[in-house]
Amino acid sequence: MSALLLEAVAAAVREAGAVMLKRAAAATPPADGPELIAAVRANDAAVLHVLRPALTRALPEAGWEDDEHATGPIAGGDRWITDPVGGNVNAVHGIPEWNIGVSLVRDKQPYLAVIYMPVTGELYTAVAGEGALLNGVPLTVSAKSDLTAALAGTGQALPSREAAPARRAGAAIAAMMQAALLVRAAVPVTQQLVQVAAGHLDLHWQFDNVRSHIGPLLIIKEAGGVVTHLDGTPWDLAGGPYLAAAPGLHTPALQVLRDL
User: Burial letters for 67-86: b for 16+ Cβ neighbours within 10 Å, e otherwise?
Assistant: First the structure.
């Protein structure tokens, strides 16, 4: 059942990716805020036009979580979560770092994840308890244990101009810059998370625990990574800020972040 479902989701994201590649190739950078919002919404609508019917056919009884930026508990049963264009702002501006994401939560636990990067053809997949793959090849997180050699990442899951979150994010970046080799602050967050699963980045932290992160965090866990909240408790999809890291780096990275 999981193999057939994963195959159906992978086919859907590839089809949606082909649609989005054409849109991205024809896009021109927006001149102002309204143009930006219109372009983002049009991209989401074009991708969902493909994903919605395909996922409904694959699992007709599943419900939907419509807001990938939402937080908090999720209802029981099967629930689809789509991140139609992760990094949509990048796509609108001609930056190639964007992806299409689908995850399935089953009885309030992450069950399946597919993250597709149409520009590079990378397809990241995971099913709970069955490992994580990149284009069919098993993924393993970094083997590093020295934080001073680590590549760390973070980013803005939610746009905000509020002073307190900005100060907290800045303080965390400054603290990690003093502890790790380098820090990358970029969007989309999903793109960084799958890089942790692949061992290209060593850790990623986030103060906004939103639903679009559920899939890539499952991929990290299935690749052998450690995911907890910043107080060290096990990660919960309805919880708060988190750290996802290679096992040998999780404890020292947590010590840098936990009091911020």
Answer: ebeeeeebeeebbbbbbbbb
Q: Is the pLDDT of residue 1 over 80?
A: no
Site of tokens 């908090």:
72
Three-state secondary structure along 127-194? ECCCCEEECCEECCCCCCCCHHHCEEEECCCCCCCCHHHHHHHHHHHHHHHHHCCEEEECCCHHHHHH
How many percent of the chain have pLDDT more than 70?
100
Neighbouring C-beta atoms of residue 186, cutoff 10 Å: 15
Q: pTM value? A: 0.96
